[in-house]
């Protein structure tokens, strides 16, 4: 009988399904965790063997601009109704425009020294430039309301269905490098197995890279001009999406580009070197095992990028939506790129690498352990490039009795603002402590599920 993509649903599997989440363990409706500034939270710490099957997240991170009329300590048990949208005159906040890159997701398998995943939270799910936009693919989706889409720091629902097996342990952490707390909802769904994973199991990995700007030799010459059509038979100056050693297969990437020239940011060929493409003297053979014909071609578009989102390729953010900005993805699910020793995935930034745009990418792949060394640029080097904002208006002066009353009102406002922020800080401290306790409770609950499943399997 021929195989079917959903054939596994027709056969029983020895496994135990479970979940850890941010549910309010007091039984109330405040189902999110608070991770204070410059701290981290363990979202899941699971004992294997098992596999993570699905991750869902949504979050918000807002900066208070003025004192609200409701004391923060009095709203400690309710859902964040006003903390998502301003009720005019009642509260005054705005989203932190850059928090998707200030917060990291870190995943470690089997007590490894290095994490397998170390990526800014937004970029991991395909939110490039900190601007969410709805899209659907085989591995990731983002769902954002229209008023939250295509704005820096907008809220959105994030999903990942990439299978993530683990033999001994899975540890998922949220690392907040922001000066503000982040409020995080999440589900982490997983299944437990009674037997050890096969020795040749490949583990999920992800890394983030950025070049701002890419080292272009002619950013002042228009794309597709005859003068930029130089010969490139080395790929030495390409933007590198992934360069790793081990055994496994590359399954794709997302690429965020901020184009500065105002023309077209593509025309760069993709070049992928594998295994024996790397010579003993440290150089690479030419041509590489995979050599493409253009940036849009690698992402399975043509004649530029189109506004679509398919299972294995598409545009998350199109330059027609926000001029100068784009985010695209290509997932090698049906056509993984295999390697036995080493792989380097790269693309020219403009033909012959002539453009000096801002490129950032997340690479996804599976490989055997140990995980390669994980590094990520410091926070200042991760922040997206944003258009300059308008200058704030300067208060006009008044005289006489009106000036005296204005002075009194300003003192009153500043005192109320100070009190509001003091109470907000205390609420954040309380919520942070509760989230830490719930994290510890989740770890114990997951251990109890593992123990009961083992007893049942042995019986």
Automatic annotation (TrEMBL):
Superkingdom of source: Bacteria
A matching Pfam family: DUF2961
Annotated spans, Disordered: 1-23, 425-459
Biased composition (Basic and acidic residues): 1-10, 425-437
Signal sequence segment: none
Protein name (database record): DUF2961 domain-containing protein
């Amino acid at each position: 009988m021929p195989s079917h993509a959903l054939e596994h649903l027709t056969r029983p599997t020895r496994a135990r399904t479970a979940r850890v989440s941010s549910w309010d363990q007091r039984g109330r409706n405040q189902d999110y965790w608070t991770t204070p500034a410059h701290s981290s939270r363990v979202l899941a710490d699971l004992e294997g063997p098992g596999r993570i099957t699905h991750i869902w997240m949504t979050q918000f991170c807002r900066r208070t601009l003025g004192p609200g009329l409701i004391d923060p300590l009095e709203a400690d048990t309710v859902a964040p109704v006003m903390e998502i949208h301003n009720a005019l005159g009642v509260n005054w906040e705005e989203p932190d425009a850059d928090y998707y890159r200030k917060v990291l997701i870190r995943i470690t398998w089997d007590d490894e020294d290095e994490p397998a995943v170390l990526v800014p939270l937004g970029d991991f799910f395909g939110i490039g430039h900190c601007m969410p936009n709805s899209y659907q693919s085989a591995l990731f989706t983002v769902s954002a309301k229209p008023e939250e889409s295509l704005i820096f720091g907008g809220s959105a629902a994030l999903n990942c269905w990439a299978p993530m097996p683990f033999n001994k342990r899975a540890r998922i952490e949220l690392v907040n490098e922001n000066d503000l707390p982040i409020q995080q909802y999440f589900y982490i769904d997983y299944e437990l197995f009674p037997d050890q994973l096969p020795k040749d199991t490949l583990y999920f990995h992800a890394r983030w890279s950025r070049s701002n700007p890419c080292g272009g030799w002619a950013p002042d010459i228009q794309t597709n001009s005859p003068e930029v059509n130089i010969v490139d038979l080395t790929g030495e100056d390409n933007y590198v999406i992934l360069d790793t050693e081990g055994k496994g297969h590359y399954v794709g990437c997302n690429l965020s580009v901020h184009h500065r020239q105002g023309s077209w940011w593509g025309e760069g060929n993709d070049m992928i070197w594998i295994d024996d493409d790397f010579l003993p003297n440290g150089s690479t053979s030419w041509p590489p095992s995979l050599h493409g014909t253009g940036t849009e071609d690698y992402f399975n578009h043509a004649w530029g990028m189109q506004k679509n989102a398919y299972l294995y390729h598409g545009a998350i953010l199109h330059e027609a939506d926000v001029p100068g900005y784009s985010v695209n993805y290509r997932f090698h699910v049906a056509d993984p790129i295999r390697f036995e020793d080493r792989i380097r995935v790269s693309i020219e930034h403009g033909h012959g690498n002539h453009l000096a745009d801002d490129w950032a990418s997340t690479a996804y792949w599976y490989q055997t352990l140990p995980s390669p060394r994980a590094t990520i640029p410091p926070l200042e080097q991760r922040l997206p490039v944003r258009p300059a904002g308008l200058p704030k208006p300067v208060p006009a002066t008044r005289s006489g009795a009106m000036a005296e009353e204005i002075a009194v009102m300003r003192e009153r406002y500043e005192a109320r603002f100070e009190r509001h922020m003091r109470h907000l800080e205390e609420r954040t401290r309380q919520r942070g402590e509760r989230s830490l306790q719930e994290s510890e409770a989740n770890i114990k609950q997951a251990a109890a599920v593992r123990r009961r499943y083992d007893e049942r399997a042995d019986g």
